[in-house]
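Annotated sample (chain length 292).
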Amino acid sequence: RSQGLSAACVSRAASRAIAMAEVRLIRTDLPKTHQQPIQEAVVKLYKRCVTTCTKDKKKTKAAKRSDFAKALKLSLDDSFGEHWHVLVGEQLGFACKKRNSTMGIWKIDDTMVVIWQSPGIEEPEPPAADTQPDADAAADASPSPSDTASDSGSPEGPALRVIEPAVVEEGSEVSSVVAALRDELKQGLDREQDMQALAQEMRRRLTADFGTIWHVVAGSDFVVEAAADRRNHVIATHGKARILCFQHEQFKGGRQIDFERVLNAMPYLLLALICFAFMTHNTVCREEFPDP
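Output written by the structure step:
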């Protein structure tokens, strides 16, 4: 009986905690019919995965947020089509391109929750690019300098350490992406204290060097659940800051062009076209011989 009473007390305490938590919708362009069910899913899954998670007392806050991000992405993919991205954390900045009517940003106490889908194309930026992010509330996302000050282990600052992928093949595009990140950090170490500015500058550099469409997050405490068919996905640390970037575009209907598969199929397509041209030539240009 005492165990049941204890469990009931924990459940009531957790319920009070989520009730007391301040849930604010910061910004969204979701359709009116989607806003309420998605916000309810955000609150319900946050309560289940973060606030009332008592199964494993040793689970860290980061692990709970990761569980929440995975559960929310799965819910969005099942309910509104695939290829959603989910960002959860605090003390972060992000520069991500969104598809119209797919972006939502909430804050639950100090935790920011961001959802979005990728567009299919991205127009080139004008020479004087707007400093505001595509899908964020800068005032809420920007950390203070004291929260994100990096170690100064050397005159040039801390080295960039790649976490994912575990192995970076020399000469690959991912290795070029890592080199671009390193170079950008060397050129603007003072921006590391402003995670929003760092994410925006990283995105501009990656877009200029490797084309569209890039999504970049920088900060000290966050998790991202991105679409499975992303490419050039890199997670790295630089002092106390973490940097995550990946490329992903999504065309209408939730489908994405798999460029690698298209390139691999090109020889077979050319062979089929040659055969078709040969058969057409024989049919059209065949000489008719008279019967003997």
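Annotation: The CA atoms of residues 181 and 202 lie 7 Å apart.
Annotation: The two ends are 108 Å apart (CA to CA).
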